[in-house]
Amino acid sequence: MGKDDVCIIGFFDDEFMKKYTKFSSFDQMKAKSPLNDVDTSELFDNKRWDKFVKKNTQFDSWQDMLLKSANSQLKENKF
Known about the structure:
The structure is a single chain. By secondary structure, the chain is mostly helical. The chain is globular. It has helices spanning 3-9, 14-20, 26-32, 47-56, 62-75.
């Protein structure tokens, strides 16, 4: 896991993942994806990842998932 992975994973705590996805953690989601061996920073603008997110979460895209997480974090004063 690279430093970019740690930064992104901080956005997706287990509670968020259980509520909005089919997975109990971001690590589990990535491990089950077709891009499990790709550095998390490379998931941005990746059409295959967007399709996976749409199929396995309540979001239409990775961007939507990131925005929801960021907004949730801000509301809970985690940043």
